[in-house]
Amino acid sequence: MRPPHEHTPISLLAExxxxxxAPTVLAREPGFAIKLFAPPAGETVxxxxxxxxxxxxxxxxGEAMVQEVGGADGKVIMTVRDGREAHLVRGNLFRVANxxxxxxxxxxxxxxxxxxxxxxxxxxxxxxxLLQLARSRMHVAPRQVFANESVSVEVIAARGLLPFRxxxxxxxxxxxxxxxxxxxxxxxARTTAPDQEAGWRGALPELSMLRLGAxxxxxxxx
Length: 222
Fold this sequence. Notes:
Layout: E1 10-11, E2 24-29, E3 32-37, E4 54-61, E5 64-68, E6 85-88, E7 92-96, E8 102-106, E9 112-118, E10 127-129, H1 130-135, E11 143-147, E12 152-155, E13 159-162, E14 166-173, E15 178-181, E16 187-192, E17 198-204, E18 208-212, E19 217-221
Antiparallel strand pairs: 1-18, 2-3, 3-9, 4-7, 4-9, 5-6, 5-8, 7-10, 11-12, 13-14, 14-19, 15-18, 16-17, 16-19
């Protein structure tokens, strides 16, 4: 794992593993880790991950299928609503519970999937469209799509529309360490460290990730 530098974005495409290889660990924090998966294209899962830790899966490029697989006794540990599998496209968010045995398979060549390994309780599975959720926001307040005791996942459009003021940028000060991942578009970003030292300013391109330490002021404009 190459730890990301604060206030310096990294390209997720540049960090992507080769198809079928072990996932790239982008960051590790207490209670969660951020990874990149590159599942090989095919019809069936090539590698199965045993139960233990849940996953939040978001395709960044191409399409993928997440499948649950029965154990040696043929028992399926968790039942998924759509025939124990879900077809994911770019920007979808799928939750894999802690007690699930699961695997990924690419449905297109070059599929790339972002994974957040963390505690995910058993719940009714569903696929959230993060891009659609962001487009439906008419103000800059983030929308929480998942939270546990270690991590909160939110989606923002990085701009908001207010009467008589027009489009506004997203400005915020982090309470804890934050990882900002751009799913679509390019943003102008400006950060200021808690000690008021010069931060960073520049473009956050599509499929980049920026680590912000606790207390960092930041401003994103689409």
